[in-house]
Design a protein that fits this description.
Elements lengths: L1 H9 L1 H30 L12 H27 L10 H10 L1 H4 L19 H14 L9 H13 L18 H15 L5 H11 L4 H12 L5 H8 L7 H20 L1 H34 L3 H17 L9 E2 L2 E2 H4 L8 H11 L15 H5 L12 H13 L7 H6 L16 H4 L6 H9 L22 H11 L16 H13 L12 H4 L7 H11 L8 H5 L5 H10 L6 H17 L6 H22 L10 H15 L4
């Protein structure tokens, strides 16, 4: 089930109808499980900071970092004294581990993938832009060489000889099965989908995830010792540093968000927001713990309760051979007979995978509730396997099930202090325009494309210079201006689909539109997050609103409700399908890039330089996407049509 969900989340455009209604309930359940587990496991940590203060949060993060560095120092001293590697026995072991973690590492940055969209409340832009900057750097800032997913893909190829594409249906059969790795990867993807609904949880998740991790430090050293590239893990040591890296940006983003909540809504809402930030932090911490413990089990063996279960199963294996041939029950996607292979059951890895698969079968094993588990019912009186297990063996099975962490669905609500009144979440009525766009049609755009016979390639001509000499009709222009900012934002929401030159070009366009600095050979880090002179296309649109004496909207969606905004609304609708309508979205974006350049003389003097730089960078980025189409009339036909349609719609704003 997790693997299927993983694939569908990588192809949301095609499976949105079955995915979107389940996102919020799945996240509530995952966070409830994390809260229960972390409270039961040890307590302490961020749980001790019941009331937010930036000083206490900074102190806590420093203590966590210092503890990590102390462990790293002890590890190195032990190694210098002749101690063995901690994670990898040999090259084969390292190769297996790299491939086991692939589903998780190949979604690097996914928890931030939908943050900072045009659906974001305008007052929160300074918060979400900082978080989006982390996403941009995870994706390489438009430089394919620095793209984290690309780098990990190259490591998988180096260690295993294969290239993996997470969005491919073949991927789920190419990876070593580890249920906790798949679960952590799915959680990251789910968390990103509703950024306006789960913003504090995303920021809390980000705060934990971007901390420098002890295992990352060890992995970078041990891979290099074994002759493999440590680049991916070295990057996550250096770029996540707490002084100027992602850890620092994550802290600044959380602080800025909570200060906004306190300023706008008061102390009570601040407490609710802080609890939700902590829930997100605990989710990341819990998922990381599960993945790490799986690695430990694979390396050192099972716990006593699991050992007892394996002993029972191993003893039954020979007697049970072929008895289950007719069974349609599947455990981890395989038949019962598949798992009861006597030879394989002697292998530690096989034992661990079998137990992981078994405890994630849903009704067969109800975690923490043996009495409700179908497996226990089947081996008890009235079940099909009654008598196959002795009383003592049944007790062993029950004890193992009861020891498994149980998802308490209510814990999220009691921990955060929110009211559980949104369980029946309906994406069709979601006020995020990018979510409900999946359920809308685009008749105006489709008709315009059918009627267009133009074949002008983008940027071969300029928008009529007359437009630059007059102000537009704002009732027509503003909806188009703001909707234009969302045309390309969904091109970069699936990390593995950004690991190519064309998508990197789109990322550079988005960076320009967001007002981020020019791409360099380095990393902007915290310096970008602390900038006070950033100007983006939203700022310029709001300047027009201000000059016209109009009321400043709280959401872009408010602008799109205008009667003259029908075409703009369809642009947002089309934007959620970047695979099906890539050529159309890029063609329209080219027209808007020209508009931005043409409007330089019209906007306020203080914004003219910024707008000119944005427009020029947009054009360079779009030309990078178009380079393979230039001169190819067949492949560029739809781009040219959309470009012409965009130009005509824009021109109508100057009539």
């Amino acid at each position: 089930m997790l693997k299927e969900l993983y694939f569908k989340l990588h192809n949301l455009e095609h499976f949105y109808d079955s995915i979107l209604p389940t996102v919020a309930p799945k996240l509530w359940a995952m966070m409830s499980e994390a809260i229960d587990h972390e409270v039961q496991r040890k307590g302490g940590g961020i749980l001790d900071i019941e009331t937010y203060s930036r000083q206490r949060l900074e102190q806590f993060l420093q203590v966590e970092y210092d503890a990590c560095m102390c462990r790293w120092e002890k590890y190195n001293l032990r190694r210098q004294a002749g101690g063995n590697r901690k994670l990898f026995v040999d090259r084969k072991d390292a190769s297996n581990s790299i491939r086991r973690l692939a589903p998780l590492k190949l979604v690097d940055g996914a928890w931030l993938a939908h943050i900072g969209k045009i659906s974001t409340p305008l007052a929160l832009r300074s918060v979400t832009q900082n978080a989006w900057q982390i996403l941009s750097e995870e994706l390489g800032d438009g430089d394919l060489r620095k793209n984290h997913v690309r780098i990990y893909s190259e490591l998988v190829h180096e260690t295993s000889g294969v290239f993996l594409e997470p969005h491919s249906p073949l991927f789920i059969d190419q990876c070593i099965s580890d249920i906790h790795v798949w679960k952590a990867a799915v959680a990251q993807q789910l968390l990103s989908i509703l950024p306006d609904k789960f913003l504090p949880e995303i920021l809390g998740f980000n705060l934990h995830f971007e901390s420098v991790a002890f295992e990352t430090l060890i992995t970078s050293r041990e891979l290099e010792e074994l002759g493999y590239s440590p680049l991916y893990f070295l990057l996550h040591v250096s770029i996540d540093n707490p002084h100027s890296g992602h850890s620092a940006i994550a802290l600044e983003t959380v602080a800025r968000y909570l200060e906004f909540i306190q300023r706008e809504s008061g102390t009570k809402e601040l407490q609710l927001a802080w609890n939700r930030v902590r829930a997100g932090y605990l989710l990341s911490q819990h998922l990381n713990t599960e993945v790490s413990e799986t690695r430990r089990f694979l390396a050192t063996g099972l716990n006593p309760c699991e050992e007892a279960v394996i002993q029972v199963v191993t003893g039954k294996a020979r007697a049970a051979q072929k008895i289950h041939c007719g069974s349609r029950v599947r455990v981890g996607g395989h038949s019962i007979n598949h798992w009861l292979d006597e030879e394989r059951l002697r292998e530690r890895t096989w034992q661990s995978r079998f137990l992981q698969a078994l405890n994630n079968t849903g009704s067969l094993v109800r975690k923490g509730r043996s009495a409700d588990s179908k497996l226990v019912k089947e081996i008890s009186w009235g079940g099909k396997m009654f008598g196959s297990f002795t009383d003592l063996e049944v007790i062993v099975i029950k004890q193992w099930i009861d020891a498994l962490p149980w998802k308490h669905g209510e814990s999220y609500w009691s921990f955060t202090g929110l009211c559980a009144d949104e369980v029946a979440y309906d994406p069709r009525t979601d006020n995020q325009c990018w979510i409900n766009a999946f359920y809308r049609k685009t008749p105006l755009i489709e008709q315009s494309l059918r009627e267009s016979n133009d074949s002008i390639f983008p940027f071969n001509t300029n928008i009529d210079s007359m437009m630059a000499k007059q102000s537009p009709n704002l009732s027509k222009m503003l909806p188009l201006w703001f909707a234009g900012l969302g045309l390309l934002e969904n091109f970069v929401t699936i990390p593995s689909k950004v690991a190519n030159t064309r998508s990197c070009a789109i990322l550079r366009v988005l960076r320009a539109q967001h007002g981020f600095g020019n791409e360099t050979g380095g990393v902007a880090g915290l310096d970008e997050a602390l900038r006070t002179d950033r100007v983006d296309l939203v700022d310029i649109g709001l300047d027009w609103v201000d000059k016209a004496g109009l009321q400043k909207p709280e959401l872009v969606d408010a602008v799109l409700r205008d009667p003259d905004a029908a075409f703009a609304r369809e642009m947002v609708t089309l934007a959620v399908r970047p695979e099906g309508y890539a050529d159309v979205l890029v063609g329209l974006s080219c027209a808007f890039a020209e508009l931005h350049l043409a409007m330089v003389p019209v906007v306020s003097p203080s914004l003219q330089d910024a707008l000119q730089q944005i427009a020029m960078r947009e054009q360079r980025g779009l030309e990078g996407w178009l380079v393979d189409l230039r001169g190819n009339s067949a492949d560029s036909s739809m781009v040219c049509k959309a470009y012409s349609v965009g130009r005509r719609v824009i021109a109508s704003c100057f009539d």
